[in-house]
Design brief:
The structure is a single chain. The chain is α+β, with helices and mostly antiparallel strands. It is 44% helix and 17% strand. The protein is built from 31 helices and 24 strands. Strands 1, 2, 3, 4, 5, 6, 11, 12, 13 and 14 form a ten-stranded mixed β-sheet that branches. The protein has an eight-stranded mixed β-sheet with strand order 15-16-17-18-19-20-23-21, sandwiched between helices. A four-stranded antiparallel β-sheet has the order 9-8-7-10. α2 crosses α3 (86-99) and α19 (391-400) packs parallel to α21.
Length: 715
């Protein structure tokens, strides 16, 4: 150190890193901060947003309890680092979900992202996920560039001066870390400043070229002495000097005249102890790792002193991973007590947990259980970046798991989707959410994600192909075919489109008799389509309720090979008409069958395990019965086990009536039903029709009329 620094060389300092920026900030005393970009905070995540939200709500509730809030005025959150709007959307979603369980909180809030130029305003307006908030004025951009002028709210049609009416929340995130700092050091009571580029790029330079004595800078000397005697206590210690942050805090103090709560979190040093623990080699390594920005860890200890100078109370909390959270209260009584209560809410491990969870998700392979993956997502508060961190392995695990809990994973993907903002994540997020959703049977979410991608990025062939596939797998095969033809006209050689074309063509060629058509429900989002091998996996999954086979008399199907075989056998029997019940949002939800014999048919239906009790199978049954009548089927029969109360109720809802017939043992636990004739003038004896049906089809069951006639049966 003794040979590294010399006196003098106080002139020609404009080349020092950050000094030109400082001059721009202070030029003509205008204090403009147009120089920093509206980038995203590096520490943005749903987990951290939830932590901010807890602190903000506690602050609001404390102010309300002290009578400091005006009920007829909104609460303002000013975000000085809103990125392209993603942070605003994430914070609003998080705050709304937390306030929903605070029924006694009667206040409303609005989110004010600070913008310093109109180009950013137009960029914000293009964020499709934020449109509803901009229209409802839950988000109102706050135009302010640091110059001594009044800040303006940019409403959709007007512009008005902003004046705070209630205590304000100010979010700085990790802005301090992104602003240039000067690098100082104390040597034998004198203060030196480093030329940062020379410090890290040319080790052959002499100390006098790298370090210049600035002990005659009274402002810096005074500030360091006021901050717990830096000149005597931090000898031979690198000292980041956040001059731009000081000036920005001064400007914010002038802007926000109301009491306020400011939050900032960046990599940095909370106190003199943490400053004394670093060396010049540590600082050099940090700068070399940040060569593009040449930014330094933040000196929160000096910032605490500046907050105090401005009349605020602040508290620095050291978090894991070298991060510091700084809470500051301006204009509040009993500030120390209130700060202590707020700091007690802070989870000091939370910033490090995000990195840990992300690393854990990246290293897990396909063999790690999906439950463990879901737990990582849950702990991260359903962070899309965690979802993306090892997506190929996650998707492979979902595809390969025969016991996947689709309902739970659909809920998990919905929570991840709620945290997706296009300005935070790259374009692939929409495709990957859609892929996972399709494999979990959540076709609604897949469409939402893909349509959002199209809305933002245009008609990408991948998005279009997946949207066509969504229609093809949810019963809308005619629409899928039409859209596919249109897509192929634009991209005739696209292999994805050609593959879908082959699959759809193979399916449609099999629909070669009057029964093999699609039947659309007039009001519900369900469509019936001929059952084929394309439904096999979804059928097996929904058939996992063993009661379906037991109560319907259908075979037990334990694996995909058995399902394929069963479907193929039915397709070879022209008398068996099988329909898959397809839901627009969830795909395969049930099954309906008619076993046709001359003018009569035997009816069978079931709802998949995840969709029982929704009435889908019953409504699908009505569609099939009405359609059968149009093809000349006058007699529709069925049966149910006497202990199958659920099926009996559904048959009654459909309009089936009980027959005065019974079967001999061992089949005497059956109840037989018929559907009233469409042409009652034919006056058919339904018991005889049932007996004749069983004889024609060589079914091994003896059915006899009961002592009661049809008209004597009491329902």
């Amino acid at each position: 150190m003794k040979h590294a620094m010399t006196k003098g060389h106080e002139d020609n300092r404009d080349h020092l890193h950050g000094r030109s920026v400082v001059k721009q900030f202070n030029k003509n005393n205008k204090k403009s901060f147009n120089f920093f970009s509206h980038s995203h905070p590096d520490n943005i995540s749903p987990l951290i947003a939830a932590h901010w939200a807890d602190l903000i709500i506690h602050y609001w509730k404390d102010c309300a309890a002290r009578g400091e809030l005006k009920k007829n005025q909104q609460l303002d959150i000013i975000d000085f680092m809103p990125g392209a709007g993603g942070m605003a959307g994430l914070m609003i979603n998080t705050l709304d979900s937390k306030l929903a369980v605070e029924p006694d909180f009667e206040f409303t809030y609005r989110y004010l992202p600070v913008i310093s130029h109109r180009e950013y305003f137009y960029k914000l307006q293009k964020q499709v996920q934020l449109k509803k908030y901009l229209i409802s004025e839950k988000i109102i951009p706050l135009f302010w560039n640091g110059i001594k002028q009044e800040a303006c709210l940019l409403r959709p049609t007007t512009r008005e001066i902003w004046k705070p009416c209630n205590p304000v929340v100010i979010l700085m995130h990790d802005l301090w870390e992104k602003l240039p700092q000067r690098l100082l050091a104390v040597h034998y009571g004198e203060i030196f400043e480093a030329n940062i580029p020379l410090l890290i790029d040319d080790k052959n330079k002499q100390g006098s070229e790298i370090w210049q004595n600035i002990s005659n800078n009274n402002e810096i000397c005074e500030r360091l002495n006021q901050a717990d005697q830096y000149a005597t206590r931090l000898n031979s210690t690198p000292i980041p000097y956040p001059e731009i942050v000081f000036n920005l805090l001064d400007a914010v103090k002038d802007l926000v005249s109301a009491p306020n709560f400011m939050l900032a979190a960046s990599e940095g040093y909370a106190n003199q102890h943490s400053l004394r623990s670093i060396g010049f080699a540590d600082i050099t390594r940090h700068l070399q790792a940040h060569k593009e920005t040449l930014t330094l860890p933040v000196n929160f200890h000096l910032l605490e002193n500046h907050h105090k100078k401005l009349g605020a109370n602040s508290k620095q909390i050291e978090l894991q991973g070298g991060c510091v959270l700084q809470l500051a209260l301006y204009g509040h009584d009993d500030a120390d007590f209130r700060l202590n209560r707020l700091s007690n809410l802070v989870n000091t491990a939370i910033f490090q947990e995000i990195d840990t969870i992300s690393q854990a998700m990246r290293v897990v392979g396909e063999d790690i259980s999906l439950d463990h993956r879901m737990n990582l997502l849950r702990i991260s508060n359903y962070d899309p970046s965690i979802f993306l961190s090892n997506f190929p392995a996650l998707l492979a695990a979902i595809i390969k798991n025969p016991h996947l809990n689709q309902v739970t994973w659909r809920g998990t993907l919905e929570k991840i989707w709620k945290n997706v903002f296009s300005s935070i994540y790259d374009e692939s997020i929409f495709e990957k959410i859609a892929m996972a959703a399709m494999h979990c049977g959540h076709w609604k979410l897949a469409r939402m994600s893909l349509n959002k991608g199209v809305e933002i990025y245009g008609k990408n062939p991948v998005y279009l192909a997946y949207l066509i596939w969504c229609d093809a797998r949810t019963g809308y095969i005619e629409k899928a075919w039409k859209d596919l033809k249109s897509a192929l006209s634009l991209h005739p050689q696209n292999t994805f489109f050609l593959d879908i074309q082959q699959r759809l063509d193979d399916r449609l060629k099999q629909w070669n008799n009057p029964w093999l058509v699609t039947l659309r429900h007039p009001s519900l989002p369900i469509i019936l389509e001929p059952l084929d091998e394309s439904h096999a996996e979804a059928l097996l999954y929904q058939y996992r309720d063993r009661q379906i086979a037991i109560m319907t008399g259908l075979p037990i199907l334990l694996n995909i090979e058995q399902v394929y075989k069963w479907i193929k056998e039915h397709k070879l029997d022209s008398g068996r008409i099988d329909y898959a019940v397809m839901h627009k949002d969830f795909g395969f939800v049930g099954y309906v069958n008619l076993a046709v014999s001359h003018h009569a048919a035997y009816f069978c239906f079931w709802a998949g395990l995840d969709f029982q009790g929704n009435g889908y199978a019953t409504e699908a049954g009505k569609l099939v019965i009405d359609f059968a009548h149009t093809l000349g089927i006058d007699v529709i029969l069925t049966s149910a086990y006497s202990d199958n109360a659920r099926s009996i109720r559904s048959l009654n809802k459909l309009g089936f009536l009980e027959l005065a017939a019974y079967a001999e043992a061992p089949d005497d636990d059956r109840i037989f039903f018929y559907f009233p004739e469409k042409h009652p003038e034919k006056n058919r004896n339904m018991v005889e029709e049932l007996i004749d049906y069983y004889k024609r089809e060589n079914l091994q069951m003896t059915i006899l009329p009961s002592e009661l006639s049809d008209s004597d049966v009491i329902f």
